[in-house]
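To whoever is covering the structure queue this week,

Two jobs came back overnight. Logging them here so there's a record in the thread.

Job A:
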Amino acid sequence: MADISAYDAKTHWSRLLARARAGESVTITHRGRPVARLVPAPAPDAGTAALRRLRKRAARLKTGLGPADLRALIDDGRR
């Protein structure tokens, strides 16, 4: 895990995001003291990704599906 000053973090924010995307954790310091950690976000699980795809498809179809309708579609897919 790398340490980087708050000033450098502000200056090179896009580079830090790229490092986090690659799986690296970075500690941000202010006057030599750790104040924050930038860590990679956890990967979405399969259920979350499937629900996201259903919502996108529903938006494309413009059928006006609500949360209850999405739940019914999910339950139908499990049968």
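Job B:
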Amino acid sequence: MIAQAAETTINLALLPQWLDPVYLLTDNGPFANVVLPAILVIVFIETGLLFPLLPGDSLLFTGGLLAAQPAPPVSIWVLVPAVAITAIAGDQCAYWIGRKLGPALFQKQDSRFFKQKYITESHAFFEKYGPMTIILARFVPIARTFTPVLAGVSKMTYRKFLGFDIVGGILWGGGVTILGYFLGNVDFIKNNIEAIFLLIVFISILPGIIEVAKRLLAARNDTAVRSETVDPEPVPAPHDPSS
């Protein structure tokens, strides 16, 4: 259908052909005639049905690339809002799966692998850091599948989750698609798209990593100082036989 797009190679060397979005959505692929429904179904499965091994970023990028071609299989004006809405809907499904089914995994006595405190700690984490986590996870494969589930399990406030999930869904679903539309034919971009996204996310969370490292180092130093300041047990005086 579109020779130029068919010749595009996105950085998916480690994935089988059936996960290559260029193969799936162009002439020789099974979804060449149903590009829009195929993209929306795959996005919903990845974000809402706990199946992370799907070409999320590269799929949206390829969809944008196809929309930029002459006589495109789908209009960019339809694709962008449709993908964003589907991504948001998928996360809502995953959140409620976690909210309804997740707690059952922890409603038992503490064991080696499950402890009640994990739920409490997860809830506190999402209440404090949840908004940024929900947004950034959109751009990380696997994480975008399970983060909304964990948010549901930890009972993160739904209003807060929904608000930031909408932002994340628009930034990821719409943003990656638009990037494909405008930059898909730039060789360096199209050949390194996965690495570029991972680099952006790493830079975004680098301050958090540094902060955690500082806390761990401070805790380690504090433990060392306390161990050095512990008074040794008094050594009894030697017995004097003449006394």
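Note for Job B: The radius of gyration is 25 Å.

Please reply-all if you pick these up so we don't duplicate work.
Q.
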